[in-house]
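Entry 14: structure prediction run for EthD domain-containing protein. Input pasted below.
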Amino acid sequence: MPTDTPAPPKARFVVTYDAPTDVEAFERHYQEVHVPLVRQYPGLRRVTLSHEPKAVIGPAPYLVVSMDWDDLAALEAALDSEIGRRIAADAATNLGPYATFRGVALQLDDA
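Run finished. Output tokens:
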């Protein structure tokens, strides 16, 4: 019996956060405000959070967030949308004072 398995995502946005200066304040805002905003990205297929990942090479960040889209155009459109701009402003204004963060958009190619 054939199954309609969705195609794997072809784009990923990864954000890493260094250790917050105030973990409680960072986590409260992140969980109560920021994550609900992130879930509103248009076309977002999946979001995963990894707290305190184990370093393999170099120092480990405090938090790694991965967000998947169908393709790079959908990811770029989401980041450039009204909610995307609200999410970026929220991160800069309300998370930036507690932790340095970096983001990278990835085109996912099969190896």
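Notes: The radius of gyration is 15 Å. Will compare against the previous run tomorrow.
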